[in-house]
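User: I'm writing a short methods note and want a consistent example. For Tetratricopeptide repeat protein, I'll paste the sequence; you return only the structure tokens, no commentary, since I'll be parsing the reply automatically.
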Amino acid sequence: MRDELAGWLRQLRDLTGRSLRELERDIHVSSSSLSRYFSGQAVPPWSTVVALCRAAGRDPRPLREVWERAKEQPPTSTTTAAPTAVRNDLPHDITAFTGRRAELEVLLSTARNASVVAIDGMGGVGKSALAIHAAHLLTADFPGGRLYLDLHGFTPGRDRVEPTEALRVLLAALGLPPGGIPDGVAERAALWRSELAARRAIVLLDNAVDAEHVRDLLPGAGPSFAVITSRRRMVELDGVQPISLDVLPAGEAAQLFVESAGGIRAGDVGEVMRRCGNLPLAIRVAAARLRHRPAWTLDTLVERLREGEPAVSEVFAMSLRQLDPAQRRMFGLLGLVPGEDIDAYGAAALAGIPLTNARSLLEDLVDVHLVQEPAAGRYRMHDLLRQTAVHADGAAADPAPAIARLADYYLSGLLAVKEQVEVLIPLPVTVSQQPPALPGLGDYETAVDWMDTEWLNLTATLALAVQLRLDTPAVGLGQLATISYGRRGGAAELHRGLLLSLPAAERLGELRVLAAHRYLLGAVLMRAGRLGEATPELEAARELMAAQGDTVSEAFALLQLAEIRMYTADAGGAVELLRRATALQPPVEAVRVRVCTGLGQALVRLGQHAEAREVVSELAASMPGQDRQTERMCLEVLGRAALGMGDVQAALSFAEQAVAIDRSTRHPIFEAASLTDTAVALRHLGRLDEATARQDEAMRLLEQAGEPHRMARSLLPYAQACLDTGDRDAAARHFRAALEIATTHGLTYLVTAARAGLTRAS
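Assistant:
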């Protein structure tokens, strides 16, 4: 019942169109208390419910019974797992939403009897505001999800989101794994319509270029509803309800200005509206400036507006003139940000100023509506202001220094993450200028969370660094990207990033840098199953490393080459390479241990299980608490050796310990391998249902990560376990699935293995 009350309170909050800070001021309840009431953590006093209803213009009496039942309900235990939330990507409802009653009524009624509405109008006229406000009002009518996608059709300096990519994002938002999303736009569109037909969802497609831009994104038959916004009319789309917006009527424009400015001031509101062109965005910017200048009258504001042309751009220019030099500089630099948003640490690096100064400047810009804060501590700029921003302080003339500073911030953060996730390969990454500050990344969970949050910004900065020929940060970001992809999957995307930054690595002319780049290219190609391409890259990297006397890196290159030998059933060749790596005597103990675990894997492939166990058993005893990934690798060898020696119970124990480590380090790729080892052992123990569940979980993780090579490699040992335990039908089914994946993705060496397995199972 608390959850039901919280849901009603959130709807009231959305109807008010006010932020937590504004509600705190208006109904005299602290924002922290309001947050607890809206989340269901606490039940508010009845007087607070009444105050919220009054702010939203609703009668509180129907909520009295819900409130009383919620008050009697004991607090929910914090250990109880929360239900999976329905996807809700809608931006926060705009404050002081004013006017548009007729258009809003058309939109709401269309949602009851049609599937698509298209809102068109000039930039800044309030298309997105109307669409978002309506979507919030329709929340209860579309329980299947509320999806939002900015198509960036008119974003200065940014390419639009093409339909193929838009469909990938939307399908992923519905929970489809990367491996389950087809490549072609027609196939993705068909899957998208099929998914929407099974649920009642609302989809907001913001800033479309034209009808063709969104044609493949529209729902088909079914109860879902789409809202499109564009600066162009969608006359080419049949059956779409159009809503064309003009600037606000004088009365509504004045009302919006007064509410946004915090009240009536002396002077001529009409003249201000004329100077703003009755354009909602311009009105909000002008009102924000007035609100934060208590001594000004409307005549003061009009005087500022008269100094320039009576155009919308002049409103922005007027606002910029009120900024002090530091605020103006920060505003201009934020227009260069290549990603969707930025945090205060990144903004400090971008500007090369202390963190406290950056935070203060960001708050100033948020207050005057020149920068948005969609989430606490995250900042973004409205599309219409971005072009103004890049020319505000001459930043666009030479963006390279600022982008280099931003890239160094991301490089510094990734180097801190590298220490936490135990990446042992030395990467010659150079940070030219230390950032003013870094967030606390001193523990594994925080470091990984930071990397996940910043990921899109990191990749966007990499692309811009390449474009600006900032070779040192481009190479560093390309190489350090392997940290995230190694954990999350996505070998194809990693390969693209490394290729993108390869010319920069070559231009630097440093052999260590080029060797590391070649090594990473080879490693990712191997991971994708492209063994013929991987081998020459790794050999080239090894030769460069050997020429520099870098025995640590050379040992890693030999380790990767040995893994390719194991993939191609040449375990003897793998042992030879690993003994060469051991003979190098790399000075880092952890590297020697990794080579020994690789040797153990090769010995298992050769059937020399006792020797494999002997090689790693001493290592496993010394590693706990020091290097979790190496400990996991030791457990993997010990488990497979135990299985080969007939000790299935020990094999299961080792595999389950490995799964626990994989989960504690949030490494789904390794977890999938350990789950397959667990499933194989359970098969041999006759615990078939448990084995099936573990293998299904492994395949789900790999499918979500988009790792077809590893999926096929996971299917083969499990299929063999089914065959070894007498279940020929199950064995044939899994061999056939491996064959299909291998054939589809050109994994030639696995095609042969899968066909041989099918022959044995038939």
